[in-house]
Amino acid sequence: VVSQWDECFQAAVQVAQRAGQVIRKAFTEEKHVSTKTSAADLVTETDCLVEHLIISELRKQFPSHRFISEEATAAGAKCELTSSPTWVIDPIDGTCNFVHGFPNVAVSIGFAVHQELEFGVVHHCMEERLYMARRGRGAFCNTQRLCASRETDLSKALILTEIGSKRDPATLKLLLSNMEQLLLAKAHGVRVIGSSTLALCHLAAGAADAYYQFGLHCWDLAAATVIIREAGGIVMDTTGGPLNLMARRVVAAGTQKMATLIAQALQPISCGQDDQA
Ligand code: IPD
After folding, report:
1. Cα–Cα distance measured from residue 16 to residue 101, given in angstroms and rounded to the nearest whole number
2. Which of 102, 120, 145 is the endpoint of a domain?
3. Tell me, which GO biological process terms does this entry list (predicted)?
4. Is residue 1 very low, low, confident or very high in pLDDT (cuts 50, 70, 90)?
5. How many separate domains does the chain show?
6. Which of 18, 20, 28, 83 fits a 20 to 30 Å CA distance from 50?
7. What CATH number does residue 140 fall under?
8. What residue numbers bound the domain in which 211 lies?
9. 233: nearest Cα among 273, 198, 193, 206
10. What pLDDT does residue 2 have?
């Protein structure tokens, strides 16, 4: 089946791979690091270079489309999801990993039309893995079809989360208490790998049973959301309601039951909205 957005999907795959080459080359070189909203919110010249590469290439091919991206938003651009075709881009997800030479680093490119996510492409740069999904067409890692976990028992779950960049004492207390609740519920383990996007792709691949986070951004989430849904998983709001891409919070799991159990165990951490910054 040829869909209306196939050309866009192919362009995303190509540009994600080109971006991956740039990131792999820069990985072992000296980096110039600056901070953004907190001492743990980092950006390098490679984040900006790669974002420019991706957007200029896509804009050339699709001049009428809109773009939401991490570094343009940090520089003051409006983060607004309208009904127009919109690319949602994180040039380097796992910038802190990138800075330290820890190899969980990805390019994340999502695409939405009428506020509905149509496809997602996530490139694990260091392992040269390409996670991808188009709405209604399944999820893949390279050529392998992805299938999310069928686990429904919290006491058998491997759970992924991220710490995020908000580090005030009240936030950290809630963050640790949420983790504690899941460990007290006898989850098998909780893992933090330093890239929301890649953690969500591991969930899609069935390598973990659940994911949750307060404080992530739409560009960490957009592409991976399609990948998880197409792998048979659930992506929803931490309140148990439908996902709001701009709300900076998420619960994802292989099954609805697991997602609900995680959501019920969490105390909310307020982080604002991407579109009200
Ligand atoms: C961040 C990483 C980090 C997560 C943050 C994200 P960035 O993205 O995924 O692990 O904790 O919430 O914003 O800044 O590396 O693109």
Report:
1. 20
2. 145
3. inositol metabolic process; phosphatidylinositol phosphate biosynthetic process; signal transduction
4. low
5. 2
6. 83
7. 3.30.540.10
8. 154-276
9. 206
10. 72
